[in-house]
């Protein structure tokens, strides 16, 4: 047993996280690792829902209350109208949102009249959520320019499904698609939804925003970010174990407080109710998130985000210079991008570069408006807090040294 544990420790130490350009793994802040070391022996649990009651018996539940309300402020939300809890991350947040959406729509529609709409870039956990909640799923085409929900495709998808008898639509809007960093146009889509609701008798729509990737980026680049400004947005999720510098698992879901009654369950053996998905939850993520919010603060996070934004811009400038045939897919408020190397053989980088920088050549099936199907090899690049300009310079240097540069640069 000891040998196996020592082996694991050795393996983890050998991982060079500094060179990890292609995955969403980063090292947590030292203060949060100290939180785990300090409190893990006490194994605090946060069973129940704590965001609506300021008077808490336990420190960890009080911290969860404070974290939720700090996040409501960050997103310019209404403290009286929003609720939420600390999740294990985006997958739980998406499953919770589909469950909440189905429960909401069942007030207005028959169960067999409800469906889930998503794009070919939507996170796979949404597909999982639809399967768990037994909701039929359909694809909305992407816009060819912006790589987000195409507004005409959205309109025609709703109308076609309406003609097939569907009346309730569960729709995730993504703020930071994992493969590309692109974002759905929340304002444009909710405005179109309003027109459709006036036009098509008996339809209801449930939207939530999957901001697992960009939820801790956009507020520091756009001070007027109001995800709950539209009355159509019912929930919003964000991860803290990415750009929040908190150990796994750590995410947050915020949702309209009036919906809680649709999913709330009494805890038979306690004088409490529970409106979470997991029920029993660890208390230490609440302490970790609370610690980062109070140690870094808005200015600290803003500094990290701005530094990585500069790194991303420098990286894309260099890529364009070295491999000008590269298609770059991204969004101005994202610290990620998708790269499609049209000029390379098989659209692939050399294997040694992939391995050195943690780059995975994901083969992605895509549906664009009106009905164009494509398959592309997309390299995902993430500019997490561990990514420094020196590593980017090394990456570009390695590209220039490789045979692909001499063969494809011009």
From TrEMBL:
Kindly indicate whether the keyword Thylakoid belongs to this entry.
no
An example GO BP is: carboxylic acid metabolic process
Keywords carried by this UniProt record = Decarboxylase, Lyase, Pyridoxal phosphate
Annotated positions of the N6-(pyridoxal phosphate)lysine modification: 242
Q: Which SUPFAM superfamilies match?
A: PLP-dependent transferases (SSF53383)
A single GO molecular function term of this UniProt record: pyridoxal phosphate binding
Pfam entry (one): Pyridoxal_deC
What cofactor does this one take? Answer: pyridoxal 5'-phosphate
- What is the protein's given name? Histidine decarboxylase
What family is reported?
Belongs to the group II decarboxylase family.
Which Gene3D superfamilies does the entry mention?
Type I PLP-dependent aspartate aminotransferase-like (Major domain)
């Amino acid at each position: 047993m000891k040998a196996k544990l020592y082996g694991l420790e050795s393996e983890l130490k050998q991982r060079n996280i500094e060179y990890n350009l292609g995955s969403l793994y980063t090292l947590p802040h030292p203060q949060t690792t100290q939180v785990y070391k300090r409190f893990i022996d006490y194994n605090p649990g946060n069973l129940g829902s704590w965001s609506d009651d300021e008077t808490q018996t336990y420190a960890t539940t009080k911290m969860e209350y404070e974290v939720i309300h700090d996040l409501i402020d960050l997103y310019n939300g209404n403290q009286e109208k929003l609720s939420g809890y600390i999740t294990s991350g985006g997958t739980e947040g998406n499953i919770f949102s589909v469950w909440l959406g189905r429960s909401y729509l069942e007030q207005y529609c028959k169960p067999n009249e409800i469906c889930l709409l998503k794009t070919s870039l939507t996170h796979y956990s949404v597909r999982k959520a639809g399967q768990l909640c037994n909701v039929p799923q359909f694809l909305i085409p992407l816009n060819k320019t912006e790589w987000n929900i195409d507004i005409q495709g959205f309109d025609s998808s709703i109308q076609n499904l309406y003609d097939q008898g569907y009346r309730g639509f569960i729709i995730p809007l993504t703020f930071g698609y994992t493969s590309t960093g692109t974002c759905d146009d929340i304002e444009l889509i909710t405005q179109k939804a309003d027109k459709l609701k006036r036009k098509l008798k008996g339809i209801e729509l449930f939207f939530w925003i999957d901001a697992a990737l960009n939820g801790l980026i956009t507020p520091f680049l756009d001070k007027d970010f109001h995800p709950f400004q539209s009355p159509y947005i019912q929930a919003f999720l964000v991860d803290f174990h990415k750009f929040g510098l908190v150990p796994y698992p750590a995410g947050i879901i915020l949702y309209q407080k009036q919906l809680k009654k649709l999913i709330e369950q009494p805890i038979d053996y306690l004088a409490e109710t529970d409106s979470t998905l997991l029920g029993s939850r660890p208390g230490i993520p609440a302490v970790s998130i609370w610690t980062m919010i109070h140690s870094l603060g808005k200015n600290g996070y803003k500094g990290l985000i701005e530094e990585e934004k500069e790194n991303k811009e420098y990286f894309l400038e260099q890529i364009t210079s070295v491999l000008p045939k590269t298609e770059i897919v991204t969004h101005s408020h994202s610290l990620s991008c998708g790269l499609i190397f049209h000029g390379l053989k098989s659209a692939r980088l050399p294997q040694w570069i992939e391995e050195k920088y943690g780059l995975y050549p994901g083969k992605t099936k895509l549906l664009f408006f009106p009905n164009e199907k494509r398959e592309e090899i997309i390299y995902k690049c993430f500019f997490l807090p561990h990514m420094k300009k020196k590593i980017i310079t090394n990456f570009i240097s390695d590209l220039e040294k490789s045979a692909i540069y001499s063969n494809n640069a011009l």
